[in-house]
Amino acid sequence: MNKKHKEILENIRNEFPILDQKINGEDLVYLDNAASTQKPKSVINAIKDYYENDHSNVHRGVHTLSVRATEAYENARSKVADFLNSPNKHQIIFTKGTTDSVNLIASSVTNLIQENDEILISSMEHHSNIVPWQELCKRTGAVLKVIPINENGELLIDEYEGMISDKTKLVSVVHLSNTLGTINPIEDIIRIAKSYNVITMIDGAQAAGHFPIDVQELDCDFYLFSGHKIFGPTGIGVLYGKEEILNKIDPYQFGGEMILKVTFEETTYNDLPHKFEAGTPNIAGAVGIGASIDFINNLDRDLCHQYEMELHDYALERLEKIEGINIIGKSANKSAIISFVIEGLHPHDIGTIINQKGIAVRTGHHCTMPLMDFYGIPGTVRASFSIYNNHAEVDKLIDAIKLAIKMLK
Ligand code: PLP
Questions:
Q1: Ranges of residues in the chain whose predicted pLDDT is under 50
Q2: Following DSSP, what letter does each residue of 307-375 receive, concatenated?
Q3: Do 18 and 112 reside in the same domain of the chain?
Q4: What is the pLDDT, as a whole number, of residue 5?
Q5: Which partner for 384 in 33, 55, 109, 267 could form a disulfide, CB atoms 3.0-4.6 Å apart?
Q6: Which pLDDT score is estimated for 51?
Q7: Residue 74 domain-assigned?
Q8: Residue 17: which domain range?
Q9: Do 25 and 53 belong to one domain?
Q10: Given the CA of residue 99, which atom of ligand 1 is nearest to it?
Q11: What pLDDT is stored for residue 285 in this prediction?
């Protein structure tokens, strides 16, 4: 990394006011980015500006503030469309987050699923990409099948190919595992699914903030992510869908905004995307996600990715030298997330002790209990890196873990 790049990265860190604080008397080291990223000043200011100057309800008003709020909301939709290279902005639906997006699809595709149809997910899915499908299966009599992984945490593509058949109606797979850091070969997964005319859904909650996504190139039917994991606010998420399928499936919530005409006898639904956005939307959240996309677009994404992986490799090299450590997730294609367990120690105890040193990591099952069962562990300690972290923070993490081991053993 040359001097200019170092300077760029240091300046990025200065954009995040929350990082400049003490926790338990120590500098905060925030390594819980897979759970939620911190927010740059530009995102915080965009939300503040919106509420100070432009807020009203959207789509319904003729007055100036309503027109401005509508413009701000729809402008954010255009930014998301460009961010994903969606062919147009009406294929972008704002939701509460990834979980809400999965629930929307799993509810809305009900009319396309019949008894004994099969839904495929993978062994490394987040609960939000498991439970909604279990519910769909209960309602329809469809069967949920799980694509296995190997010990390294890599999907077994040959097994997947053997599982898919004319009975398969939908495949839903995570792009980047929040627990293992595995980057799945979604291009292959989608290609194989397409050869059987199977609907494809990609959970991009972890991926969208880390590398560019091109939904047209991927050719998936649905792609989803959450604002709060890409430096944006909580409570706002995205569902991209192909126009043909969005037109074919039913809305899953009903009320204002999503209608064209209502009588007591019957209702006609609105056009896309409004058909799927019942009620007053999270306008400030949309403004915030728009600002987070502007922030990302101003970054040198290759440099950021390279830097995050440099931090990952440095941390991994140092962690692997700790006696009794077992890294969970050793995929050849991996992102800047490291999960680990230490023999004889509970992840929560490690997390609690290193918090005393100002270090924020996540401990537990990371909403992937079946994956924990696969590895036969109750949970892991997970350090997940972002562009504002640095090598000194990795050193602090290592020292704190060594201290925790000393105290707990
Ligand atoms: N999918 C993955 C891979 C995740 O990491 C998460 C959150 O951690 C989710 C889905 C759910 O996202 P949200 O809680 O923002 O709805």
A1: none
A2: HHHHHHHHHHHHHTTSTTEEEE---SSB-SEEEEEETT--HHHHHHHHHTTTEE-EEE-TT-HHHHHHH
A3: no
A4: 81
A5: 33
A6: 98
A7: yes
A8: 3-30+300-408
A9: no
A10: 16
A11: 98
pTM over 0.90: yes
**Ligand 1 centre from 95 Cα, in Å?**
13
Q: Which of 241, 275, 297 is the last residue of a domain?
A: 297
pLDDT at 321: 98
Residue 233 shares a structural domain with residue 155? yes
Residue closest via CA to ligand 1's atom 2 equals 205
**CB under 8 Å to 62, separation ≥6 — which residues?**
none
pLDDT score for 7? 85
The answer to whether residues 202 and 119 belong to one domain is yes
Residue 122 has a pLDDT of 98
Q: Which residues line ligand 1 (CB under 6 A)?
A: 97-99, 126, 128-129, 174, 178, 203, 205-206, 226
What total of structural domains would you count in the chain? 2
pLDDT at residue 39, as a whole number: 98
Tokens at residue 126, please? 């987040």
In a domain, 37, yes or no: no
Using CA atoms, how far residue 253 sits from 105, 129, 335, in Å, is 11, 19, 35
Q: Which of 264, 279, 297 is the last residue of a domain?
A: 297
